[in-house]
Amino acid sequence: MAEQLKAELKAVKGMNDILPPDSARWEWFEDKVRALMARYGYLNLRTPIVEPTTLFVRGLGEVTDIVEKEMYSFEDAMNGDKLTLRPENTAGVVRAVAEHSLLYDGGKRIYYMGPMFRHEKPQRGRYRQFHQVGAEALGFAGPDVDAELILMCRALWQDLGLTDVRLELNSLGQPDERRAHRDALIAYFEQHRDQLDADAQRRLHSNPLRILDTKNPAMQALVEAAPRLMDFLGEASLAHFDAVRAVLDANGLAYRINPRLVRGMDYYNLTVFEWVTDRLGSQGTVCGGGRYDYLIEQVGGKAAPAVGWALGVERVLELLKELGAAPAAPVPDAYAVVPDRESLGVVMRTLEALRAAGVSVLMHGGGKDGQGSMKSQFKRADASGARYALVFGTDELAQGMVAVKPLRDATATQTLRPLADVSAWAAQLLDA
């Protein structure tokens, strides 16, 4: 027992701590997302991390990889309920919308941010606890909203300074069209059953559309020659797809039609899309989504159309880092150098006044026996990245002053500023 208590405790594999200064990049990214969503009129919705297991079985599809292999599911010890850590959040958003009758007065534009969980092998940009940002437009049937969401993605990439991502587009049509295509796929793959790997053979009759998404190089030629869903689409489905494309064309957004793009969940119909990059290896999809007009009814709500997307935060930040576009960690405007503890009252009163005026100030933390030598404090001030050191020396305090010493401009001179009127000079620390 003693040895167990001494054993080093670490985070669960694939569930990572986000430490400073990396956490500052996450905050920067989240601020960009919130500003974008406000411009497009999307409101934040927050759902529980734990949902009923049935929600994902019914919503995602019983034979999807997520439900079959990747969910963290357990039985509630208190009442025996079968629960699951959410592997994605579209189903949870739809559950919340249906449960609270949010569409009673018309469509809703919603966004969310938060952690998701999938039990899979951790690899670059893909973890067991990962984070998503998603946007969902519920109650809107028109192709204009499909296009709006895609254009919103482009606006986010521009806001982030993110390049080297491209759009791939497809249409999955409607359920009857997919059923006809499914029958054709089964017949085709039955004729070439000896070329199917074990995973494809398992899916042949349960979910043949997912065979098209195989990453097995040995099956690529076979998949390329398979019947294409686009050839089974009716007039209405084609018209919807053409209308989405027309809006994207009018806005100068380039894309590639990818007939093999099917996405990983069964709930999609009509438009599906992905934003992909070649810079992250096999984890090249940074954002994906599409229309899911039947999901709300599947989870027990009143039938209503919907469309949305989700992006992987870790992948986007990894791509920003790869491209050298990730922002630097923020630094304080000033660093307070405090020679002795006796002056802490007036020092901290001054710092609070500066902070109230919008100046970020880091104060040197003192030990129980003092504040540390002036040399060590100036060393910490320089390492902090602050533009100024605020020196609360004995002589300065005796005059009711603080010395403001520039740290990044060798030609600038140290000045004295009055403690009694901080607001008169605080803005000067921000203007430089």
UniProtKB/TrEMBL annotation:
Residues 34-339 form the Aminoacyl-transfer RNA synthetases class-II family profile domain. Keywords: Aminoacyl-tRNA synthetase, ATP-binding, Cytoplasm, Ligase, Nucleotide-binding, Protein biosynthesis. Its EC number is 6.1.1.21. InterPro entries: aa-tRNA-synth_II, aa-tRNA-synth_II/BPL/LPL, Anticodon-bd, Anticodon-bd_dom_sf, His-tRNA-ligase, HisRS-like_core, HisRS/HisZ. GO terms for biological process: histidyl-tRNA aminoacylation. GO terms for molecular function: ATP binding; histidine-tRNA ligase activity. L-histidine binds at residues 88-90, 118, 132, 136, 263, 267-268. Coiled coil: none annotated. Transmembrane segments: none annotated. It is found in: Cytoplasm. Gene3D superfamilies: Anticodon-binding domain, Bira Bifunctional Protein, Domain 2. Its main location: cytoplasm. It catalyses: tRNA(His) + L-histidine + ATP = L-histidyl-tRNA(His) + AMP + diphosphate + H(+). GO terms for cellular component: cytoplasm. Homodimer. Belongs to the class-II aminoacyl-tRNA synthetase family. This is Histidine--tRNA ligase. The lineage of its organism: Bacteria, Pseudomonadati, Pseudomonadota, Betaproteobacteria, Burkholderiales.
